[in-house]
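User: Reviewer 2 asked us to show a designed sequence for the structure in our supplementary figure. I'm pasting the structure tokens here. Could you produce the per-position amino acids so we can include them in the response letter?
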């Protein structure tokens, strides 16, 4: 569900941004508004980012091979990290550069096409609102009772948090651009247009930094959620087995590696140990709604481990 929901949100955002970008470039061409140029480049950057997310999702579906025995699930994290770089450089830094140029040579918006930026920005706000609404609806399917900030910080599928932040940034940026253009039209002072452009640049840089930090954590390798770790632990100990160590790692948004050391009776035969391990693997896969690569190591449970239960499970 997470993957399909993320794809739907990405496609909706891509369609909105491509359409909006064309109209923003037209508005910039007839008015020379720096806010409109910054917003046009912002939409182009967002469109490129959405294409990157779709490419990453497709590449991540490749089957495991000899060189990548755990598959390509982390491709989605790699492409999401590239998205943050594109948003920072193409979106944020370009807007700040354009603002600096406009501060150096401010000019008002004149001529018979003065109304075009206002019409384009209002239309873009409406279109981005629909895209943002789609991202919210799809995120609610997997967010559960988490707050929005926690969902963005802890989500293992990167597409929805990326689209949420991009769409939020786009809406705020459009409001800033609308304010800058409106004040420029009212006062005839191009400084307000430049100021709106600078605010857009700062906004995009901040969003890109947040995305980079969250995606970097996924690239380094995050454990399964606390709920999944708890469910796996209960599945292992359901038949009375003692759990000595447990470590989990996301191989991709919908696949985890589970490595556990469990106790066996000292007089167990090899056949009994193998059967117990097989049963544990079945229970683990039934306990979580993710693909699981499971490695179980049998060991003898010592009294030292029993006396330190807080150290018996490592996450």
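Assistant: Here is a per-position design you can include in the supplement:
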């Amino acid at each position: 569900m997470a993957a399909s929901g993320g794809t739907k949100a990405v496609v909706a955002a891509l369609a909105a941004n491509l359409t909006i970008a064309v109209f923003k470039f037209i508005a910039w061409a007839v008015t020379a508004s720096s806010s409109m140029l910054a917003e046009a480049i912002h939409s182009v950057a967002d469109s490129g980012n959405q294409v990157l997310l779709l490419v990453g999702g497709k590449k991540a579906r490749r089957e495991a091979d000899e060189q990548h025995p755990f598959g390509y699930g982390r491709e989605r994290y790699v492409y999401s990290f590239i998205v943050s770089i594109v948003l920072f450089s193409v979106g944020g830094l370009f807007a700040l550069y354009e603002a600096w140029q406009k501060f150096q040579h401010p000019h008002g918006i004149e001529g018979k096409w003065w109304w075009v930026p206002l019409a384009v920005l209002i239309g873009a706000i409406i279109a981005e609102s629909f895209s943002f609404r789609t991202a919210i609806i799809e995120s609610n399917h997997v967010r559960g009772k988490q707050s929005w900030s926690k969902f963005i910080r802890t989500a293992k599928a990167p597409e929805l948090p990326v689209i949420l932040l991009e769409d939020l940034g786009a809406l705020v940026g459009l409001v800033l651009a609308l304010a800058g253009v409106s004040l420029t039209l009212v006062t005839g002072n191009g400084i307000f247009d430049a100021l709106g452009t600078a605010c857009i640049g700062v906004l995009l840089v901040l969003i890109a930094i947040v995305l980079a930090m969250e995606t970097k954590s996924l690239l380094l390798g995050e454990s399964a959620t606390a709920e999944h770790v708890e469910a796996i632990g209960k599945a292992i100990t359901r038949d009375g087995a003692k759990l000595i160590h447990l470590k989990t790692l996301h191989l991709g948004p919908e696949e985890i590696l589970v490595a556990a050391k469990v106790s066996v009776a000292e007089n167990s035969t090899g056949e009994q140990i193998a059967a117990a391990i097989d049963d544990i693997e079945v229970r683990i896969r039934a306990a979580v709604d993710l693909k699981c690569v499971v490695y179980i190591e049998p060991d003898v449970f010592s009294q030292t481990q029993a006396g330190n239960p807080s150290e018996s499970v490592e996450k």
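For the response letter, you might also mention the following. The chain has ten helices and three strands. Confidence is low (pLDDT under 50) at residues 306-315.
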